Every structure is written in C-alpha cells, then in structure tokens.
Amino acid sequence: MKIAIITMLGVAALGVYTLRAQDASKSVWDGIYTDDQAKKGSAAYAEQCASCHGDQLTGGEMAPPLAGGEFLSNWNGLSVGDLFERIRTGMPPANPGKLSREAKAEIVAYLLAFNKFPSSSKDMPSNTEMLKQFRIDAQKPGK
Q1: CA distance 12 to 44
Q2: Is 127 helix (H, G, I), strand (E, B) or coil?
Q3: Is residue 16 a part of any domain in this protein?
Q4: Based on the structure, what is the number of domains in the chain?
Q5: String of b and e for 36-51 (b: at least 16 CB within 10 Å)?
Q6: What are 37-87's pLDDT values in tens digits?
Q7: Does 9 reside within a domain?
Q8: Which residues, other chains included, contact 85 with Cβ-Cβ below 8 Å and sequence gap of 6+?
C-alpha cells in the first residue's frame, strides 16, 4: 500500500514538473497582450516612465533602454514575469507602489508592442506567476 501511494505521488509530481516545463516553452512571440492594453500602457509610460527612459524607450543617463538590441539582450531567455516584477517592485524609483498591478501590466504590454512582439486577443494578466510562463525571446523561435 505504501509503495502504491509513493508511486502515485511520484507520478503526480512528474506530471506537475512536465506541465511546468511545457508552460515555460511559451514565448512572447505567441502573443500575450492586447492592442488595447498596449495603448493604455503607452499613455502610462509617457506619464510615468519617459522622463527617465526616453520617449523612444532608448534609456537615459541612469535608466536602461526598454527597446532595441540592448534591452532584448538583457532580457533574452528571462520571463515576462521577471520583467513585470522588476517594474512592479522598483518603478517608478521614487514610489514603486504608485501604480496598480494592472497599470504596470499595461506598461509591459506597451514595451512588448514597441519591441514588435505580436499582440493577442486576451489581456495580459497582472499575476507574476502566470507571466513567468512566457519567455522573452529576442528572436522568433523556429517552429
């Protein structure tokens, strides 16, 4: 009886691991945000982020770029959840709690749109664990 239970727990754990591994294979190239979210994010970015990161997301004296090769190189292989958490917990620097999770998700949607990643028909969630399922790939993976 104990062996059967241990075997079932092992199989269940393997199933969870396999499910997580499959989730990690999603990419920003699969679409994760809506055009409406990116539009709202554009307005929030202009108001809250552009003074440091620039109108064209090129970065500033003390702020890194949020678009282009350097940005993609820095985030390549990491998850959208990682990017979201960086913004959620640290931006804007003077008051990281100023914006809601939804507003920060809209800003991430804008960053993805600006970097030419495709949109989706579903809104991007503002839940970090769900966003960790999507990997940032600088180049579109081969299918």
Answers
A1: 43
A2: coil
A3: no
A4: 1
A5: ebbebbbebbeebbbe
A6: 999 999 999 999 999 999 999 999 999 999 999 999 999 999 999 999 999
A7: no
A8: 128
